[in-house]
Fold this protein.
Amino acid sequence: MEDKYSLAKCEQYGRRLATRLGQQFFGAQPNATLDGPALLKVTPIRQVNLLVLRQLLGRWQQEASQLRSPYFDFEAAPVRAALGQFMNVLSRHIRLDRAAWEPLLAQAIASTLVLATNPAAAFERLLLPPAGPEADDEVPVAALRDYLRYFDQAKGFFEGFVNSLPTGNAPLSRDFLRQRFDLYQAAHHQELPALAQLILEFNPLLPLTEADLWDDGPAKPAATASALAAPVAAHPVAPPALKAAPAIAPPTAEVKPAPAPVAEPTVVPSVSAPPAPPLPEAPAPTPAEAPLYAKLKATQPTTTHLADTLREAAQGGNATLASRGAPKVVSLREAISINQRFSFINELFNGENMEYHAAIQHLDALPDVEAAVAYVRQKLSTQHDWSRKEEHVGKLLKLIERKFAGE
């Protein structure tokens, strides 16, 4: 099925739609900027917004990885802690102008379409981490699981693939993962969401049919300035709050877009795949020098059961913090980075933004760590069923521990 779709057509549609949305949002305010919260609601398609954020995280990690020197030890624990705190602060000060945002948006739109038309290509783009000089051929399963945060469309399908991989700490080769994914896709292709539904979501922003994405489908004409300036179709997304540059971008009136016809998507019947051969066994790991990410991971504590995590935080939180030398935080709201906030909202509060903010505000108002941990254990954990969310609950409790250290 996926062979009939063109990756180039997905890229082309992504660029055209990104240009149209850029004109809509920045046309009257060319010097305005988008901040982090605006990025999460800049389009009505959640998957697109998540993939913009994922690209930002990738740039962020690339810049952090360049902080290496023959004169200073960047792997020392206090240095890593300080850098982590710095990056958390930096992540709360995102600022993108049109020139920086539009290419990220175009790529996110194209990747969202690739998720629905070519899962194997999406696996390479969105689930496999970029190959680095230290580990070109091996990928830790934890890295795959970490990237699942940025999946909304087809998340269950890709999560099922990651859960099907062999357990253990040994990294897996890229060739093995590709072969395993091909077999998994053949056996579970019916779990992928229908392309027709995604097309209906894109249509109000820029007309699209399934045939437009076919390898031999109709080509769209090049967008003209007058076409880009035209209002978007029915049910447009409201422009997010833009931060105008001081003394440059004057306030403007809101543009009221006019409706346009919605193209009827073409539904192509699915073809049953032949029975999948058995999945291969993981190859035996070969001895090699541990890469940097493995060294860093080895210094981190392993995830414990939720009950143990809550108990340890209530009984000995301050002593543990002092021994680690982690910096204290003034408020949870300020200490939680945009990446952590996004993760907590999705994993702990089922995507409910208001419930997350209410819980954090209440935790910040509590008098001591005992009251905060009791609120997490007796109220939040039960209300939102955190029995299988040990990793994320542990991160929240560490922040709580740091907030009340020394009190």
